Amino acid sequence: xxxxIKASSMANQDAIIHIKESDIDFGTTVxxxxxxxxxxxxxxxSLAACMLKNVERFSDLLKFTYSKATxxxxxxxxxxxxxxxxxxxxxxxxxxxxxxxxxxxKKNLEKxxxxxxxxxxxxxxxxxxNVKDNV
Length: 135
Hints:
By secondary structure, the protein is of the alpha+beta class.
């Protein structure tokens, strides 16, 4: 598989990532630091997207149902060299399905996630998978 995106920016303005039929605005200026995602947040968003996509994928393979999944990710930025580290996630699956094996789901998310495996090569990453009753 190969992937391709495009991105563009204008001087003194924010930038846009162009992916398929989507445009994702992100901040590159001080004026939007509090309103648009920055590159570090987009990086963590990519990890979240990978994990949530795999929750959907593994719900079919592991034969469990769920109504919703939420993911909280926190990371620390190190200064020298500048990089992300100490990434911690908390995945919550809303399900009443007794077949949902959270330990197996977590193992599969961490073993087969493309972005997850890319991130773990350069950063420490750990997390939990919890189940709550359907909402």
